[in-house]
Amino acid sequence: MAALPAAAAAFVERSLSGRRWQLRPVDEALALTISQRLDLPEIVGRVLAARGVGVDTAPSFLRPRIRDSLPDPSHLLDLDVAVERLADAIAAGERIGILADYDVDGATSAALLYRYLGAIGAAATVDVPDRLREGYGPNPEALERLGKAGCRLVVTLDSGTTAFEALGIAAERGQEVIVVDHHAAEARLPSALAVINPNRCDQDSALGHLAAVGVTFLLIVALNRVLRARGRFASAPEPDLRRWLDLVALGTVCDVVPLVGLNRAFVSQGLRVAVRGGNPGIARLAAIARVAALENCDDFGFALGPRLNAGGRAGHSSLGALLLASEDLEEVGEIAARLDLLNQERRATERKVLAAAEGALGASLHRDAPLLLAAGEGWSPGVAGLAAARLVERYHRPAVVIGLADGIGKGSGRSVAGFDLGAAVIAARQAGILSQGGGHPMAAGLTVAAGRIEALAAFLTERAGHQLGIGAPAPPELTLDGTLQVGGCSVGLARRLAMLAPFGRGNPEPRFAIVSARPWRVRQIGDNHLDCWLQDAAGGRVRAVAFRVLDRPLGQALLAGSGRPMRFAGRIKLDRWNGELRVTFQIEDAAA
Q: 482 pLDDT exceeds 80?
């Protein structure tokens, strides 16, 4: 690998996808020291140093362990109150209600708590509200359903921090609620027995990056400790919590939280559990998705995640949690097949809503608006977030997509670095514009009356303009770790780079530029993908693939560019073909 000189701050000002390619800065002396001290290839030392890993922290980064990153769960406010009440309920034989969000984080959280309670002989009932009919988070109807099932104590997972009305009604009915969440909070808290959330305004915690399933795991660690102290396992086996780390890893990856610290350890060890196939639902869904072995985050994020989310997007919110919690192989097979079918339908619906949103936005797509907001009658709110993500990907600014029905809009938004969309949506709700809303800095969900959409657009646009600046957005940057010749894309290099996994937000997978190559034998695969070979003047050749590009400038350039050299940016991937490992260059961008 030949690194670009430090002076070449940007060697492509604007690529075919409108991005500015820039080399990731690196301390060359530190990179060399890491390589020599740990006997690592120079390229691994460079990538580690560029990600802020030091000589002393490199060993734990390369071999992350949960025990090295796990703090005492009791530092989380209300956690001790929650586990004591749960322990009392278990001892008394009470049925515990589990109310979870429909997405992968919520489904894995629900399955994790349900499996733990089942393993210690406690009774539990799971309820996942219908996102399309009941909206986001706990609602009075869902809590009442659990109450009728005998659940006087309810644990909400991946939601509840801002469910003031629903939890207030539950408290008036005598229902006790424990909130386990990670979403942005307000200064006030709902009426609940406990609100366990590392992102509470009054909480001092280094775990704000956890997904809800990670917070749920901490709850179980603390509960298991209390039950042990009470003698629960004196005559019964104590469960090994590590066997459920596949669920923790799956929810963590699919919620796109930073893979740093404890999250990195969760995912690293959870992948080892997943590859053993102990969870029937995960194993069956992987088989349907044609994943031979769950070896990396891409398998979770791109193969399993969309299928698990498909149920909630189509009005069948409970399917993901049921799949992950079940030990019934026949039931698991039926649910997995149904989710796969729903995911196929979701793809078609997403394409329609995206096209309609772009049509509704019209000329505003090319003006200097700091935020895009589109709403349409009959658009499925189940795919609104996906359509918003595609708009962000294409136009490099925050986007909100809203589906309207019977005068009510339900939608989702995605953001860009520098604009806290979750905080903006909460502010809009506090201002009386929204009836419901919340989320993360990079994603949010909301419910709004049709007559308030213009006010919402003005509110969010003004806030985005203040944070991002008014005017045409600057080209987004694609940060690269160096340059390669085609012949340098080898299985050996891919193996060495894999030492730095798991990759995701907070630990981006290394990206490189191939400085000069011609696309050869370009062909369409699937609905919107391209497969080809990249070859250079020296005779080097590597297989390459580009996803979701057929209708984009990158795709058109690949189809038309077989005769001239181009520059390509992307990642080096390992896959298996006829039982043998091979290397593929996954093209993310190109420039003339």
A: yes
